[in-house]
Design brief:
25% helix, alpha/beta, ten-stranded mixed β-sheet, 269 residues, single chain, 7 helices
Length: 269
């Protein structure tokens, strides 16, 4: 898998053309939706290490801290000075959070992140080649549409990735599988308990009240349909992306992914 390349992030300096390298400098990749945000962010951390990128990992909501990454907990007013000298480095990604969440639910440990404006200020310091941002929560569900106050995307975001899991296709629209099913129903017209269709997932990804909500005007938007672990799932995921591409001109391409198998397919308009 080469998720960085699929998202338009260039290789390390000198490995690709100059324009791509310049485009990659200071990339801010915000993930929204459900069904693979944290896994995708972890993949980009690993790919950043392989490319000698200075990678940061943070959130505008709360999340379990990423495993195997140095964590800096600092009040917004303490940034960027609270980051140790040299972090992030080409071989030392760093996670940054405002505080630890006391008595977290659904996880042994959680951290709380920053207001998007604080992340914008961090970006302006030039310390990051890639800053990865989890911009909403999904309570471990496979699909969602955002609440009125979601997502919280930094204005500096250069790429926004709306995520959905293909596993919801054919499943009922209910709280077991869907975070905020009433919001999905409002976008799709689907009644609670009815089966979720390919068209429903595509509609939410392409909706101004779904995957495109609060996306900065200058950001590229690359939808990702995840958990396409077998041929049938890949075919359904591809159909979701094709319909999402037809529904909005904000998408030039979308991704069909399986982090379990390491497969990634780019579906273009």
């Amino acid at each position: 898998m080469d998720l960085a390349n699929a998202l338009g992030l260039a290789d390390a300096p000198g490995e690709d053309d100059e324009d791509e390298d310049q485009a990659a400098a200071g990339a801010v990749v915000a993930f929204v939706g459900a069904g693979g945000k944290k896994t995708a962010m972890g993949e980009l951390v690993e790919e950043g290490l392989a490319r000698d990128r200075r990678v940061g990992y943070t959130t505008t909501t709360h999340t379990p801290p990423p495993a195997g990454i140095d964590l800096v907990v600092a009040e917004p007013s303490a940034l960027p000075g609270a980051l140790p000298e040299g972090l992030p480095g080409p071989n030392e990604p760093v996670a940054i959070a405002a505080e630890r969440v006391p008595d977290p639910d659904r996880a042994a440990e959680k951290i709380r992140g920053y207001d998007p404006s604080v992340i914008d200020q961090l970006v302006a310091t030039g310390r990051f080649d890639w800053l990865l941002v989890k911009a909403d929560g999904a309570r471990r569900r496979e699909f969602k549409a955002p609440a009125p106050d979601e997502p919280q995307i930094p204005a500096a975001a250069t790429v926004v990735v709306p995520v959905a899991s293909v596993a919801v296709v054919g499943a009922p629209l209910d709280e077991e599988r869907v975070h905020r099913p009433e919001r999905v129903a409002a976008i799709t017209g689907r009644e609670p308990g009815q089966s979720i269709t390919v068209e429903d997932v595509a509609s939410v990804l392409a909706s101004p009240e779904g995957g495109l909500k609060r996306v900065p005007a200058n950001a590229r938007v690359v939808p990702m349909v995840n958990k396409a672990d077998g041929p049938d799932e890949r075919a359904r995921a591809r159909a979701v992306i094709e319909r999402a591409l037809a529904a909005t001109d904000r998408f030039d391409a979308g991704l069909v992914t399986s982090f379990r198998t390491g497969d990634l397919e780019i579906v273009r308009r």
